[in-house]
Amino acid sequence: MSEVSAQLQARTLSPRQLVWLRFKRHRLAMASGYFLLFIYTVAAFCEFVSPYGTAWRNVQAINAPPMRVRFVDAQGQFHLRPFVYGYDMQVDDETWVREYTENSQKRYPIYFVARGESYQLWNLFAAERHLFTTGEQGYIHLFGTDQLGRDLFSRVLYGARVSLSIGILGVLLTLFLGVLLGGLAGYVGGLLDRAVQRAIEVLQSLPALPLWMALSAALPVSWSSLGVYFGITIILSLLGWPALARQVRGKFLSLREEDFVVSARMLGASKMRVIFKHMLPSFNSHLIATATLAVPGMILGETALSFLGIGLRPPVVSWGVLMQQAQNYQAIVLTPWLLIPGLFVVLTVMAFNLLGDGVRDAVDPYSTGGQS
Amino acid sequence: MKTYIAKRLLGAIPTLIFISMIVFVVIQLPPGDIVTSPLDRMQSQGVELSSEAIQNLRAQYNLDQPLPLQYLSWITNFVTGDMGYSYLFNRPVNELVGERIGYTLLITLSALLFTWAVAIPAGVYSAVRQYSLGDYALTTVMLVGLATPSFLLALIVMYFGYEWFGISIGGLFSPEYRDAPWSLARAGDFLSHLWIPMVVVGLGGTASTMRILRANLLDELNKPYVITARAKGVKPLKLLVKYPLRIAINPFISTIGFLLPTLISGEAIVSIVLNLPTTGPALVQALINQDMYLAGSFLMLLTILTIVGMLISDLLLAWADPRIRYE
Amino acid sequence: MSELKSQDAIESDNILQVRNLAVEFHTETGRTKALQGVSFDVPRGQVTAIIGESGSGKSVTASAIMRLIQPPGRVTAGSIDFAPSGSEPYDVLALVDKDSRLEQLRGDHISMVFQEPMTALAPVYTVGNQVAEAILCHREVSKKVAWDEAANMLQRVGIDDLQRRMQQYPFEFSGGMRQRVVIAMALVCQPDLLICDEPTTALDVTIQAEILTLIRQLKGELNNSVLFITHDIGVVAQLADHVVVMQGGRVLEAGTVRQVLKQPMHPYSKGLMAAIPGLAPKGQRLATVASVVGATDITTAYPLTRLADGRQISLSPSQLKAFGHE
Question: Does domain B95-325 have CATH number 1.10.3720.10?
């Protein structure tokens, strides 16, 4: 009996509720969703969360390794307020490499939501409270510092803002181009369809990275950081839209013959009305899934270009720009913590992939993700 | 079959023409042109050229002509095998390409083979033993692999190569063989260096390839024709290979098409990180320095490489799947 | 008048004896019992039909006989005794996966014709290849010999222009032609038992008749036993000697065609017979199974009882008394 009532209940759920129910069953996708929500929130408030600005330099700690947050001091005494130990630095006689050791004499307690370096939140509000800081005395470098003594933890958070927003912005642009061109091609057909199809074919056969490289090398050096940022976003979407357009086109082709579309047309609905009121809603959930799965490509693209030095350029901070410091061999061996931004890239991309898979399974339980 | 091949071959020509136009436009985009950059350099060295001399120089490169004509002369020369002159390396582009494209091809193809050697068994295992511990383990590894940029992987390999083996990984030859003529020893040295870029580049495509094969095979495993064959008494291993795997491999063959652009992209960036004498690093140099002939030729050749790869994958697919052949 | 037990030794005039077969499927929502306590006989050299609505467990029974039940399905109880000609009888369910008899069972001793001729053939191999493969799986012969035998069998199922047709791919054949190919593939090793799992359901009506005629004709020539699964009583009347009525994963009644069709005893069988168009007087509304069965309890499982006239039936002792049986 309970089975029957459950079935009846299932019947009264809206499609959206059903999708949500199916999505909730994907634990990994849910977890990825929460992770992304978290990291995007942090990126949005990176001025507050990070203890320092991107340009702040600690000349006492150049190429210093990550610090450990402690509760128990060298004497074995427990402190409720967590603290870090400052560095002692020696220069190796032979290799001239700086070596750091913890000095238990320099104990820097961590204060939460306390005053530190002043900053402008979103370039709008002046503030000086940080999520955590050691205050006036001492310093804290959770991920270590780079060769200029800049705090890597803070820079990773600032970089998150740029890298993550490029992912979203790029996908929105891709989505716009893909839906517009794919939709028109699929709906109008004829010459336009053939032209778009040919363009898709050509663009998909191009190796993305060399072309991205060529295009971003073409961005004038004189452009402002913001200009370069949008330029890179556009370049990334330029090669991203064909995959989406192809999907949209195929969907439109099959939907065009569906009865509900035909009857809408017969009732005299305008072309735009048919496309946007009748056809798009019937597969916008697919679009969301595809868009989610397209974000990683954008993030990886930005990272790769910036890493090569032809994408975003300092003083802009992005994960790719940060990875650039780890480009040479010496840097990796001596300061492996400079690879930490890469870890964030991997985690974010993985989360987007899992989330996208979950969404796709939820909106289309019969697809297995294969392509035919 | 012959008409199909002819059709596909002819179909590739407009694509190539279209692509050559894109490439030409792209390399024209940066401000300045092939003459301005060397001129700037000469001027910074104190050499002054008369405007007449500059005009001559520009005429020599057809820069005084409208763009379509420039394109025509560029593409005609390209097709007839003259790719122009690289002022950056002060050598004909043909020589540079000859030196480097072979290594690119070698690394890309070996990476392709590596991708299959790993992805096919892994994908088959994952599908046949769906939801087993091994399936979960493989899927997890591939998930991480899918999310790791190839340059990060190259960096990590470099790090561990130093930490564990104390060796510096990079280049395609040990210093003593770098400029030596080809010999058996040099070839051996080359092979011992080749595997690192092969693995690093290849892993980039492995994850997606395995996912596709796994999904396709899962789709096929319970198709009626598989049950028919089992009811016929075909032995389990032969059954798997001859029926579902054989058919799941069809869409798989068509993945060569998307795999090649991925691998060539990966090869470019990995070569830069590992400092390999392939097209990648030279392309970046050429792009940054506005060395138009060099950049254009490399871009064109890399694209032709992908197009040819896709053509081959299409033909393979037609050979493997009668339904396409008879279309 | 005795219950059918799994310990029964196989009777010499039966080629197959199914006893107390139970199959379960594990799904997300829990266990589903696809078959429970299924018992019936397949007499040698005759046509036995299993009839029932969709979901009654007909096809699962066929799969179980061929050992084709795949996870999430599982055989949980019962025995399937099989007596191939010229070798010792054995229990199909007791064979381990590596037993050579299992290989022999599939395709050599028992073979199967499936419902969907459109998908039962692999799309990438030629028709000749797929038929010849059946021979190569079971006989130590050269490819040439296998090919010739395949050609011979294809000719017998009515495919002409063999030179060309055998080199063609399944998608170049029509549905009826494909089903002929599937039948040729099933018969090419001259099996003792041919299982036809709704072989005509997916075909056009005219083609259906042709295929049925073909099966009957070949049965006459090859003299094998046939287990015919269908939901069409007309087909049963035309083709079968014995009939097994299944519903909800259980056998409700089994006997000769004459017994079951003329004098159905189980309420469900009665309902089935009443629902045949043509038997009811003209101008009258055709009965449905439910309208005939009414409030009768057909869902409770009673053990099969063998009656004096040889038929088996699943009824409560009190219902049996009403028919005058002890």
Answer: yes
